[in-house]
């Protein structure tokens, strides 16, 4: 039986909140949430190049876990010793990433059945931090790759790919939102697998080289390819919406 811990962020964060709520509602054995303290990210992590769709203010992670009766602890995700103690105390054997920075191999090894990540894009084409921009640059399909992580970033064992349906009316912002919704769809499928307690069917991910972070100029150049990308992947509005 899987006993699941979630890696999240210890501040209001939409993905952390959504993954926690979905996991609690799914009925899996959710034994706890490990919240990482907020850190200042490099400036490239804040660049978008387009106006994202408005979002509601997320729930504070600690408050949300308290309301749902979920064990919650604040630990730096690099703190191998403390995470090891927490995993042992809660008898966790599988983890799901809702919010985490790169996890050390010694942290990954704490979980008998591994750690599941949801990467916004196809791996290996969109590996790295700039997944959305690499999707456009490499003309890769929109969606989410679910995989068991290993010591290489955006590699490990492939579980499934959840495609995002793009149509001819989409903008950069709506495609980004659809990719996020695909993460939630993929999560529900994975939670179903966890609930059935069977072994995950996986295949190795071949990723010889991780994509480097893009410069702002490179991201602008990738965004300029959006119309060409959409022409390749979008269905017409009439095909996308049943009549």
CATH superfamily: Formyl transferase, N-terminal domain
| Count of distinct structural domains | 1
Rough outline: globular
Instruction: Estimate percent helicity.
Output: 25-40%
Which percent band covers the strand fraction? Answer: 15-25%
CATH topology: Rossmann fold
Mean of residue pLDDT values:
93
Tally of individual helices: 9
Top CATH class:
Alpha Beta
Weakly predicted, low-confidence segments: none
Structural class: alpha/beta
- Give the termini distance in whole angstroms: 44 Å
The CATH architecture comes to 3-Layer(aba) Sandwich
SSE order in H/E notation? EHEHEHEHEHEEHEHHH
Strand arrangement across the biggest beta sheet: 3-2-1-4-5-6-7-8
Q: Largest sheet, if any? A: 8 strands, mixed
Q: How many strand units?
A: 8
Rg computed from alpha carbons, rounded to a whole number of angstroms? 18 Å
Describe the structure.
The protein has 243 residues and is of the alpha/beta class. The chain has one domain: Rossmann fold, CATH 3.40.50. Helices cover 36% and strands 16% of the residues. The protein contains nine helices and eight strands. Strands 3-2-1-4-5-6-7-8 form an eight-stranded mixed beta sheet, sandwiched between helices. The longest helix has 25 residues, at 172-196. It is globular. The model has no long low-confidence stretch (mean pLDDT 93).
């Amino acid at each position: 039986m899987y006993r699941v811990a979630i890696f999240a962020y210890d501040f209001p964060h939409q993905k952390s909140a959504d993954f926690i709520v979905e996991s609690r509602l799914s009925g899996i054995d959710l034994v706890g949430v490990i919240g990482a303290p907020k850190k200042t990210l490099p400036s490239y992590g804040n660049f978008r190049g387009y106006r994202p769709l408005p979002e509601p203010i997320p729930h504070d992670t600690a408050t949300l876990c308290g309301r749902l009766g979920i064990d919650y602890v604040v630990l730096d995700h690099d703190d191998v010793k403390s995470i090891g103690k927490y995993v042992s105390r809660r008898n966790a054997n599988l983890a799901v990433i809702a919010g985490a920075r790169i996890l050390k191999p010694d942290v990954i090894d704490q979980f008998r059945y591994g750690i599941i990540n949801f990467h916004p894009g196809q791996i290996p084409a969109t590996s790295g931090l700039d997944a959305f921009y690499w999707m456009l640059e490499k003309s890769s399909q929109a969606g989410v790759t679910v995989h068991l992580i290993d010591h290489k970033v955006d590699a490990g064992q492939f579980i499934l790919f959840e495609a995002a349906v793009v149509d001819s009316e989409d903008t950069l912002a709506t495609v980004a939102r659809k990719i996020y919704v695909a993460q939630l769809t993929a999560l529900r499928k994975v939670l179903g697998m966890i609930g059935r307690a069977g072994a995950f069917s996986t295949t190795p991910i071949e990723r010889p080289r991780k994509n480097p972070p893009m410069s702002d100029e490179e991201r602008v150049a990738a965004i300029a390819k959006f119309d060409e990308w959409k022409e390749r992947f979008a269905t017409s509005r009439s095909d996308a919406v049943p009549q």
